[in-house]
Amino acid sequence: MALTDFLAASDITSAINACRANDSFSPKKFFAMVGLSKKSPPEIEKIFMILDQDKSGYIEQDELQLFLQNFSKGARPLTAAETRAFLLAGDKDGDGKIGWDGRVTRPSGRLTFIVMSLVLEAELSNFALDRPPVNSKLAILY
Ligand SMILES: [Ca+2]
Questions:
Q1: pLDDT in tens, 111-127
Q2: Under 8 Å between Cβ of 78 and 21
Q3: Which of 33, 71, 90, 105 has the fewest CB atoms within 10 Å around its CB?
Q4: Binding-site annotation: residue ranges
């Protein structure tokens, strides 16, 4: 399985091109451009699993650094500053890596899926097994 199974090639190309310059990468912008912001939590979980290349259950710094290459093999690695900012944005519990923990948060009493600038530290609200993704409203809170 590859990210290109989930995303349009043209969106990937645009998103990669938009952050070609060093230090121009913004996770939120990238996720929006590439179409990840619109994905359902189950799809995002699959994407997370692709990004977690060593299947550790977390996206670590080295995996983040090569983040763009998951989308396009020829893409540049993220700079140290970008990698750090990305990690800080996604690492809500401060453990130095980004996890998919499925924690439940219900900020407004309504089912809201909060996925860090996207894939990251998914605080999935009510990603309950007994509920169909009717509630798959995805809020990107960054
Ligand atoms: Ca990993």
A1: 223 333 333 433 333 33
A2: no
A3: 105
A4: 52, 54, 56, 58, 63, 91, 93, 95, 97
Structure tokens that stand for 128 in this block:
């309950």
Q: Using the 8-state DSSP alphabet, how is residue 36 labeled?
A: G
Query: Do residues 39 and 101 make contact, with C-beta atoms less than 8 angstroms apart?
Result: no
Nearby residues of 129 by Cβ (< 8 Å), 6 or more positions away: none
Residue 134 Cα distances to 14, 32, 105, 111, angstroms: 30, 21, 17, 10
* Tally of CA atoms within 13 A in the half-sphere of 59 that contains its CB: 33
H/E segment holding residue 50:
helix 41-51
The SS3 assignment for 98 reads strand
Q: Which domains does the chain have, with CATH numbers?
A: 3-139 (1.10.238.10)
- Please report, as a single letter, which amino acid is at residue 40: S
| Angle subtended by helix axes 27-34 and 9-18, to nearest 10 | 160
Q: Residue 60: is its pLDDT beyond 50?
A: yes
Q: Which protein residues have a CB closer than 5 Å to ligand 1 (ion)? A: 52, 54, 56, 58, 60
